Amino acid sequence: MRRAMVLFAAGVLGTAAFAGCSSSTKTATPSGGGVTVPSVATGTPVAVTAGDKSDTEQYLTAEPASVKAGPVTFTLTNKGTKKHEMVVLKTDEAIDGLKVGADNKVSEDTTTGEVGETDIGKSGVVTIDLKPGKYVLVCNLEKHYGQGMRVAFTVTG
Length: 157
Known about the structure:
The protein has 1 helix and 11 strands, in the order H-E-E-E-E-E-E-E-E-E-E-E. By secondary structure, the protein is mainly β. A 5-stranded mixed sheet has the order 5-11-10-7-8, with no helix packed on it.
């Protein structure tokens, strides 16, 4: 009986120790599938700024606009007067050539990840493992892409 208790206690302690060593992740769920992202930013940093020039003209910037393939940590800062988001689309289309649907949004079929709706004055972070290619970063809230919230982004090999 005592041996069984010792084995049980060792198993519980071993399981607890193992669980304590697991890495922490959070999951973002963009349209088109989930993206697992480390809770601690570990990729090449990219600063993305969202803002408004007027009620009908908005902007999205990314610095730098090109990085090497691998984990990329996007930090979206909303300096605007409305909620904004940042969707990463892998596409060879020109930044102003994406088709806008009846809902005044572009398709998110090629989404690799996103920072969801971010309140005024707030920031959001996502780390995505990107492959070489051309991308477009957009705010895909209704009408925002058409009002200028897009920027070209390149990932090199």
